[in-house]
Amino acid sequence: MKLAVIGAGHMGRFHAEKFSRLPGVELAAVVDRDAARATVSDYRTVIGKIDAAVVAVPTDLHHEVARACLERGVHVLVEKPLAATLAEADDLVDLAAKKNLVLQVGHVQRYSSAFRALAARVDRPLYIDAERLAGFKQRGAEVDVILDLMIHDLDLALSLARVEVSAVSACGFRVLTSDIDIASARVEFANGCVADLSSSRVSQAVVRKFRVFQPGLYASADLQGGKLRYVRQSEGAIQETEETHAGGDALEAQAQAFLEAVQKRNPPAVDGVEGRRVLKLALDIGRLVRERLARFA
Question: pTM of the entire structure?
Answer without folding.
Answer: 0.94
